[in-house]
Write a structure and sequence with these properties.
Elements lengths: L1 H21 L4 H4 L5 E6 L7 H10 L2 E4 L5 H4 E3 L5 E3 L2 H12 L3 E8 L19 H18 L6 E6 L14 H6 L3 H12 L4 E6 L5 H16 L6 E4 L2 E3 L4 H11 L6 E10 L13 H20 L4 E6 L31 H8 L3
Parallel strand pairs: 1-2, 1-11, 2-5, 5-6, 6-7, 7-8, 8-10, 9-10, 10-11
Antiparallel strand pairs: 3-4
Helix pairs in contact: 1-3, 6-8, 9-10, 11-12
This protein binds ligand 9MR.
The site of ligand 9MR has 8 residues, from loops.
Amino acid sequence: MKVFVAIFLTMTLFATVYYADSEIPSLKEVFSSYFKIGVALPVRVFSNSLDVQLITKHFNSMTAENEMKPESILRRGADGKIFCDFTMADRYIRFAQQHGFVVRGHTLVWHSQTPDWFFRDDSGNLLSREAMIERMKEYIHTVVGHFKGRVYAWDVVNEAVDSNQPDGMRRSLWYQIIGPDYLELAFKFAHEADPEALLFYNDYNEFEPRKRDIIYNMVKDLKEKGVPIHGIGMQQHLSLARSIEQIEQAIALFATIPDIVIEITELDVDIYRDNVTKYQTAPTELLHEQAEFYRKLFQVYKKYSHVIDNVTFWGLKDDYSWLRGFPVRRNNWPLLFDENYQPKPAFWAIVDLQT
Ligand code: 9MR
């Protein structure tokens, strides 16, 4: 009996994926004259053939969800010597190259997912400014140098802005040890290591007016100073509670910076408006509301496609999303494909836009 159930389930899944694979439009083709369509993936999906079918059909850009972050690359030997381990990241890049994807590098300088020891000497004390700059330089040169020509864009600095601070800068260890000029140093080192790569400042909640203005001024100033920064990464972790109008205002403002490139780097649309509600299954009316939200969002992205060069979803399908564990553990359905690889109303909403 169990065997029959297993066979039946497998056949249903294959039929489903066959359908997903052959009958529906490909996102990357639908949007080919507007922007690249990217997806954030963990390395484990490469050994799942159903995932691979969906990935190769719809996307042409990839971001490692965690595998290229400092904590995934940095190692410290028994002798205390720091080195880089690219085993996992190289697997990632190999897949991308075999299947013709471009890769976004995420991320070099961040307060999170960076080992605490990276900021300290052998006795556990914080490094001096000079020693920290040296360490940052070596790390960026090694990593960006290693991937030179294989990663077209880097999130050089991630989430450095904190709108609650008087100067708008997050009090990260980078900031505390080096000072506010750590940003320009990071961009300079990345550019030295790969002069062809597009270099981004990446952040979330850019639609909040104060945060938006801080990022705008910061990136504009850096560019005017001649710092090699090419663009702004707008993460776009959104929810149905967000205002599309505010999102457009942020894009419109960033687009006025001369020679700017905007990339939507981490898109998802949370269906919850609070931290306590939990649904077992996705409420149909919310899936339709989400579809409308995605439709309006893509109308905005298309309107600014002269500056937007990549729209990347933060996950392949709903059950792979980080939002299943944040801010609390619960079911969530923030992406275009459901647990069974099926396109959701949100998929059709953005695809129908084209017709
Ligand atoms: O999706 C990532 C998740 O698997 C990690 O546990 C988490 C840890 O910080 O990072 C998530 O990705 C984040 C990205 O690197 C930066 N912007 C916010 C993303 C969601 O937290």
